[in-house]
Amino acid sequence: MVVDMIKIIPANVGQIKIIQKIAQKTWPATFSSILSSKQIDYMLDMMYSDEALQAQITNLNHCFLLAAQDDVYLGFLSYETPYKGEAKTKIHKIYIMPEAQGLGIGKKLMGAVEAIATNKGDKQLLLNVNKHNEAEKFYKYLGFEIIATENIDIGSGFLMEDKVMAKEVNK
C-alpha cells in the first residue's frame, strides 16, 4: 500500500455505514486494553448509531473525511470548525483500520484537517485523547501538546478520562 495513492475525501450522510464499519473494527482494537467491553459497546452505540452520526453531520457541524485507496476505506477523521465560535478546529475522531495503521494514513488525515484549519484562518487544532491511549505519542509527534485533562460523564456510570491536546497553526 502506497500512502501517496490514498485519497482524502469529504464524507456525507450517505456514507454513514462506511464510518460505522471502520469504528466497529477499530474500537475494540484501540480500546480493549483500557476500557471494558461494556463501555466500548455503549460508546459505539452512543457515538456511531445512524441517528448519532446523522446528528453530528447535520446538526453539530461535524465534518468527516474518509481515507480511501481504490474504493477501500481505511480510516476517517471528524472535525468541527469554528469550534465554540472561536478560531479553532476541534478534531473529534480519528480512526485507522488496524491493518492500515503505521502506513502514514493518520498523518495524511491530520495534514488535511490542518490545511483546512489554516485556510479558514483558525489559530489552533484541539483534540481529546484517552489518558491511556497510545495515540498520544502520535499526536505529540505531530506537534500537539497536552494543555489540560478532563473527565467527561457520558452516562450509564461511564467516564471518559481524557487529556486535551492542542497545536498552534497560523502562527
TrEMBL record:
Gene3D superfamilies noted in UniProt: 3.40.630.30
Superkingdom of origin: Bacteria
Alphabetized UniProt keyword annotations: Acyltransferase, Ribonucleoprotein, Ribosomal protein, Transferase
Stored Pfam families: Acetyltransf_10
UniProt-recorded Gene Ontology molecular function terms: acyltransferase activity, transferring groups other than amino-acyl groups
N-acetyltransferase domain sequence ranges: 6-165
CDD domains: NAT_SF
InterPro entries registered for this protein in UniProt: Acyl_CoA_acyltransferase, Bact_Acetyltransf, GNAT_dom
UniProt keyword annotation of Acyltransferase present: yes
Metal-binding recorded as keyword: no
GO cellular component terms given for this protein: ribosome
Protein name per the record: Ribosomal protein S18 acetylase RimI
Organism: Olivibacter domesticus (Pseudosphingobacterium domesticum)
